[in-house]
Amino acid sequence: MSNLKPMLLTALKSYDKSQFVKDVTAGIIVAIIALPLSIALALASGVGPEAGIFTAIVAGFVISALGGSCVQIAGPTAAFATIVAGIVARDGMDGLVIATVLAGVFLILMGICRFGSLIKFIPYTITTGFTSGIAVTIVIGQLKDFFGVTYPEGVRPIETMEKLAAFLENVGTVNPAALIVGAVSLAILIISPYIFKKIPGSLIAVIVGIFMVKFLPLKVSTIGNLYTISNALPSFHLPAVNFEIVQAAIPNAFTIAILAAIESLLSCVVADGMINGKHRSDMELVAQGAGNIASALFGGIPATGAIARTAANIKNGGRTPVAGMVHSITLVIVLVVLMPYAGMIPMPTIAAILFIVAYNMCQWRTFLQLVKTAPKSDILVLVVTFVLTVVFDLVVAIEIGMILACLLFIKRMSEETKAESWVYTDDDTVAVNENLRMLPAAIRVYEVSGPLFFGASDAIEHIVVEESAKCLVLRMRAVPALDSTAMNVLTALTKTCESKGVTIVFSHVNEQPMKAMKKAGFSARISQLRWKEQKRSLNKIIHNTKKPEGCCEPISQQSSGFYNKWDDH
After folding, report:
1. Cβ-based neighbour number of residue 39 at 10 Å
2. CB 334, CB 50: distance < 8 Å
3. Is the dihedral of CA 156, 160, 164, 165 positive or negative?
4. Can you tell me the distance from the alpha carbon of 352 to that of 364, in angstroms, rounded to the nearest whole number?
5. Which residue from 416, 442, 444 is spatially nearest to 553, judged by alpha carbons?
């Protein structure tokens, strides 16, 4: 059960004052970084600015306290923005709360069932595809605010393509003042990391944006124009629940859970490399589940580990979960003291911040590298997942992407499974090539290679039992796995051989195929006594054949391998 033990308990055993000072410093710095990001991501998700800070406070504290990583910082992330905005638009905040709570339950169950290591089975092409797609959807969603475009009354696009269409239709209403503020904010975000190493560029952009709108004749929409700002602390809210709402929320909850698991564990892996540590993946999933449940019930949105904030924590000396907890406490103070001033932040500045977030997460270099170097099937999965994320939504993209990846993998594996007959030649060929050994033509030998499963069972169906054959040998030393569909085909082949009076021999059967044969009752059908009878029958055929037609095989595959080692199977 050590894998389900919070890392905080381990860290506190050797905790000291010097590390506490480092953790407090790192936590405060990360909170400063998280403040504008949390507000921006909340607005991109279609909820009020307070929801982003509530998420960073509640989920951040719970996940740090219970998590399986020493340095993970959790909060709202860009990966959830599109799907959350869609849920809020269709089902309201109560629908989002139910979906997030269900996602938390799924995450806890995944951790308890030790699914932490199974996340690696989600193909890299799918994660790259939907991550790049999310980045594009964020950019499209922020075009309106960055350019100050005005939509007609009643136009409230929800889907990404609807937002793009509405923007293009109303592009003539661009506000030059908004474009100026957005461009200056974007320039600050790009340039500031090269000048100010310790101060977050997003904080500088927010301050400059506020001053521009406050002291220059620029009429630009601010957060206060669109949302009611409150500095109240998070409060518990339990939505009305019924079976229909829960049933409708399950697909979204599943997507949120998978996203949270992938992003948090990926962040943990990156953090492990930075601190030379090792996280507890199952405990991290449990913590993510608990954090998301708490966040939803206290006015927040879905949360997960944030790579950028986690890296900032590490670079500033944070080495225990205390830093993440300090980050949450600092945000509580900021919420109470500074939240009223958040209403002055210009919307183009928020859009500029999200543009940078989208750029940092888009992985365009990785995307292009995969397109250039990956197999065609992987490129297909990558592009399809990307397009579906942008055109439809994340749920469809992940579902179709996984189905397509599995089908293409099955096809690829089936192409590796073969049943090839040894090449039968004449006596003259044997005389010329001394590396070949004689074998009677009455003995037909097939080398079976690759996994025998439902997608490749037709390889067995291609084995031909000729009239002259008295014995059929299937060499299975290169068969690592066998499933019930292939087992059924082998049974049919055995019956065909029996009907023709042909002895069938299974040589060098590996462990898993042998277990499958025993479980299916196949080994009982061909008992150990039958194996010995087959051996005697084979030896009789060899010794009684005086002038065999030549059958040759390289010494590397010589026939002695299956009678000198007859009992290997």
Report:
1. 27
2. no
3. negative
4. 19
5. 444
Measured distance CA(316)–CA(494) in Å, rounded: 68
DSSP-based helix, strand, coil % in the chain, nearest 5: 70, 5, 25
Q: Rg of the chain's alpha carbons, rounded to an integer?
A: 32
Residues of the chain with pLDDT > 90, as a percent, come to: 48
DSSP string, 327-374: HHHHHHHHHHHHGGGGGGSBHHHHHHHHHHHHHHHS-HHHHHHHHHHS
CA pair distance 136, 397, nearest whole angstrom: 14
Which position has the higher pLDDT, 430 or 407? 407
Tens digit of pLDDT for each residue in 511-542?
Answer: 999 888 888 888 776 654 355 455 555 555 55
Which of 99-103, 120-124, 216-220 has maximum average pLDDT?
99-103
Contacts of 59 (CB under 8 A, 6+ apart): 74, 75, 291, 292, 294, 295, 300, 303
Which residue has tokens 């859009």?
Answer: 351
Q: What are phi and psi of 565, to 5 degrees?
A: -115, 40
Q: What is the pLDDT of residue 518?
A: 86
Sign of CA dihedral 226, 230, 233, 239: negative
- Is 471 exposed, middle or buried, given 0-12, 13-18 or 19+ CB atoms closer than 10 A? buried
Tokens coding 333: 């103070």
Name, in order, each residue with C-beta under 8 angstroms of 244's C-beta and a sequence gap of 6 or more.
none
Which secondary-structure segment (H or E) carries 447? Answer: strand 443-449
- Give the pLDDT confidence of 441-490 residue by residue, as tens digits: 788 889 999 999 888 888 888 888 877 888 888 989 999 999 999 999 88
pTM of the model: 0.78
Specify the pairing of strand 471-478 against strand 74-75: unpaired
Amino acid at residue number 350: I
Are residues 335 and 51 in contact, defined by beta-carbon separation less than 8 angstroms? no
- Compute the distance between CA of residue 89 and CA of residue 99 in angstroms, rounded to an integer: 14
Burial of 335 (0-12, 13-18, 19+ CB in 10 A): buried
Structure tokens at 495: 């019956």
d(CA 35, CA 337): 13
* pLDDT cut 70: percent of the chain above it: 89
Which among 346, 291, 254 is positioned nearest to 56, based on CA atoms? 291
The chain-wide mean pLDDT, for the chain, equals 86
Please return the burial class of 376, using the count of CB atoms within 10 Å of its CB with bins 0-12, 13-18 and 19+: exposed
CB 150 within 8 A of CB 173: yes
Reference 508, options 439, 443, 565, 445; nearest CA is 565
